Amino acid sequence: AAPSQEQKGDSHCFKIRSSSFEAARSRAGGGGESEKMVLLVVATASDPASIGPAAAFLAMPGWSPGPPIPEGMESFTNGNVRLLKHERSIVAEDDLDRRWQEATGEAVSEVIFLSKHTAVSNRPALTVHPIGVPHLREDETPPQGGRPGWAAVPDPRIGPWFRLMQKVAADQGLVPEFEITLEATHHGPLTSTPTMFVEVGSTQEYWGRQDAAQAIALVLWKGLGLEEGNAVGTWLGSGEKVLLGIGGGHYAPRHMDIVIKDGVWVGHLLSGYSLPMDAPPQVNGKSSGEVGGMWMHSIKVSYEATKAGFPGGEVIAHLDQKSFKGWQKNAITSYLQEQNIRIGKPNDFLCTNT
């Protein structure tokens, strides 16, 4: 089998076995039906930035009506890809992977949600990100779905598709008007399988842009292997390194500087707001005692979820050093060492010729 587009550019970074590659292709949407695993792409008619890309995706060849779904949903099928449309909030429909399997008998390998993005800047953008609210306490209510203290298993495609999105957007003439960016881990809904959001932002003017919708549809078409059978971002990587981003702003600029490089895999990205830290008391001008807050739990569950999304990979923490005060950095570094989580520098994540 030919390597995927991501693999073609980074062949020295992968240990490819044809049997495992074929199995992964089958799960991802390119290849045979032997695995009986399907991939869900989810859109809602209540969101123009969701239904627009879905309509453009459905206009591409190979689609047929999907299995009947209860609850007023509509589905379409193309190889091992299933597109599911509903009319409710995209972040409120929990457990769609489980509900799909119960309704159809088809096990779900991953879920990709199409959604709008909002930003204070109002700048047009195409984004991709993992989901979860690992920093919330049990007594807190997530403002946009999910469960307090939970992090979804991140889809391994996030890094490769971020780079694919950059290429497609440039080819379609959306750059520099549109910013192509990662986002930090945030919001729901609940899922049990590898998950990511692909979004169009950041205002009503751009949510309905047909050229943006077409670009997202092309990312789906190419990325899922429906164009040539070669999916982008299929995880095969025994021994591959995976970035767990810790710190920084919502758009993870210092982590993104690494992920933009070919061959880099990325899991959860925890911005500063996902690392609530209570300053320890001061004794004689020095910090004394534990650093409180949900930051340790947030790191722990995000690390575990990232490990689950990249079986056989080496999850390495990358810290946005400048975003922390000294006591914060010391506490995080000590905790990572206690948990035997390696801390990496930018070059540690890059592929090297062997």
Q: If you had to describe this structure to a student in words, what would you say it looks like?
A:
Keywords: Hydrolase, Metal-binding, Zinc. Pfam families: tRNA_deacylase (PF04414). One of its GO terms (molecular function) is metal ion binding. This is D-aminoacyl-tRNA deacylase. With 354 residues, this protein is an alpha/beta fold. It has two domains: 219 residues, Aminopeptidase; 109 residues, Rossmann fold. It is 29% helix and 20% strand. The chain is built from ten helices and 13 strands. The strands form three sheets. Strands 2-3-4-1-5-8-6-7 form an eight-stranded mixed beta sheet. It has a three-stranded parallel beta sheet with strand order 10-9-13. Strands 11-12 form a two-stranded antiparallel sheet. Strand 6, helix 5 and strand 7 form a beta-alpha-beta unit. Helix 3 packs across helix 7 and helix 5 crosses helix 7. The two termini are 22 Å apart. The N terminus is likely disordered.
User: What name goes with the CATH superfamily of the largest domain?
Assistant: AF0625-like
Shape: globular
* Strand content range: 15-25%
End-to-end distance = 22 Å
Proportion of helical residues = 25-40%
GO molecular function: D-aminoacyl-tRNA deacylase activity; metal ion binding
Pfam family, one: tRNA_deacylase
Organism: Aegilops tauschii subsp. strangulata (Goatgrass)
Protein name: D-aminoacyl-tRNA deacylase
